[in-house]
Amino acid sequence: MRTVLISLTSQTARRDFQAAQLTQLGLAYEVFDAITPETLPAEYLAIDRDNWERTVTLAEMSCLASHRSVWQTVARGRDPVLILEDDAVLVRSLAGFLAGLADLPGLDHVTLEVRKRKKLISGQPVHLLGQASLHRLFQDRSGAAAYVLWPEGARKLLAASEGKAVLADGVICACYSLRSYQAVPGLAMQSDQCGLYGFDAPLETRSTLVRPRGPKAAKTFMQSLRRVNSQLKLGLRFWTVAAGARRRQIPVDIRMF
Question: Is 164 in contact with 47 (CB distance < 8 Å)?
């Protein structure tokens, strides 16, 4: 399976960590040089960044543009692609899981990631793959650091985000047409989450996506209204699938990392 690492050229420590980690896992990979506010294409600069639940920063737009650029390459292909951000920490058995995943039918997206937030997943697994299982993912809450995307899923995400100011993980979480699945136990996490799961982070990171604070973070009436509408959609989503779903934190086996 093709692996694409999204990484800022300035993040040399992260790149070195991923080179060591992915080599150890036996995963050949290519690097996509992440888009920055200075290199953000004109079509993204033209989008109204206030037209969401809050004002989207240029750094967040750059992150979205980076993921969309990779989605475009996935959409043109025929096979699933593992997409990673450069602070993703992966389990040692990931290559075997990916090998079993590649030939499964009917998938658009599989997230490997956990982030100490409850997710809405099917009560029973849909597939068993070695040490992990796949559950239908009805509602995620965040995370675009480690996921597998199929061409059809890429096309859905591109359509859902076209011309919009939104977060990359927000697009994935809100695209309900996406046939999305969760790996259980979790097979990846961002390095800033390691301590929450009881082990030392192998990489010290600080997010480059700094949100405004104080008066700059104030929302307009329309932004607040969009936020309420988003929460209503979350509630509707829950009741639509509640019969076969469970809201739970995805377990992690730290011995796998």
Answer: yes
